Amino acid sequence: MMTIAGSDSSAGAGIQADIKSAFAAGVYCATVITAVTSQNTCSVRAVEVVSPETVASQTDAVLDDMNVTAVKCGMLPDRAVIETVADRAVAGRLPRLVVDPVMISTSGSQLMADDAIETLIGRLLPCAALVTPNIPEACRITGMEIRSERDFDRSAEIFRKLGCKALLLKAGHLTGDTLTDTLYDFDSGEVHGFRFERIDTVNTHGTGCSLSASIAARLSQGLSLHDAVQGAEEFLHTAIRHGCGRVWGEGHGPVDHFVTMR
């Protein structure tokens, strides 16, 4: 697989989390870096955006040589970078594309320019095999408030009208002891819920990156969309549970990506 995302110097999210999540699934992961962030478990201190020319060069270098069978997109910081990635997606060069529309970090820092969101919606989302927003990201994309899981269907309908083929709407930002991530396959009309108990931990840095990369890794192995999402959900929540109690820093630590080795 290939991941197109930002680098996290604390290695809990972004490119580093994607590589570890792919490794946990037994998949080789090539990388395209879109931004270099200076961050730790507490905050993002600085972001340096990689030029669209360099993003294009990295992407083409991998695609021209390696048999990429799935792609995950994470942090796409500005319009120019999104256009560069979208050009290749429209040309059919990014198979089984999983788009995690990263807008805000776990620590609350903005990771995508405001004027880039419309480009993401109009050009990249319709090319994706799956889009994996959390609640704040889904609210920003759809323009509607999501207060509970009762709002999921209405939000999903907006994503469908935007041209999305499938949607995994993540429930982690809602309240409650039990939450359900919901997969909408618009091509088949099927809806599947993945229910899990909330885990009380501060170590949630990079959960969205890890989940989307884990899904892409499983899609690269030929699994169906449902089975890829189910396997990735099981991996992530096991990794969160085993990461409880570990002290990685003063803020939000990472999940335990190496749980499959244990």
Structure characterization notes:
The chain is built from 8 helices and 9 strands. It has a single domain (2-261), classed as 3-Layer(aba) Sandwich (UDP-N-acetylmuramoyl-L-alanine:D-glutamate ligase), CATH 3.40.1190.20. With 262 residues, it is of the alpha/beta class. The strands form 2 sheets. A 6-stranded mixed sheet has the order 3-2-1-4-5-6. The chain has a 3-stranded antiparallel sheet with strand order 7-8-9, with helices on both faces. Helix 1 (14-24) crosses helix 7.
CATH architecture: 3-Layer(aba) Sandwich
Shape: globular
- The largest beta-sheet arranges its strands as 3-2-1-4-5-6
CATH topology, by name, is UDP-N-acetylmuramoyl-L-alanine:D-glutamate ligase
Instruction: Classify the secondary structure makeup into a structural class.
Output: alpha/beta
Task: Provide the residue-averaged pLDDT.
Answer: 95
Helix content: 25-40%
The count of strands amounts to: 9
Give the CATH level 1 class. Answer: Alpha Beta
Instruction: Tell me what portion of residues adopts beta-strand conformation.
Output: 15-25%
Topology as a string of helices (H) and strands (E): EHEEHEHEHEHHEEEHH
- The quaternary state of the protein chains shown equals single chain
Please give the domain count: 1
Tally the helices: what do you get? 8
Q: Distance N terminus to C terminus?
A: 24 Å
What integer value in Å does the Rg equal? 17 Å
Largest sheet: 6 strands, mixed
The name of the CATH superfamily reads Ribokinase
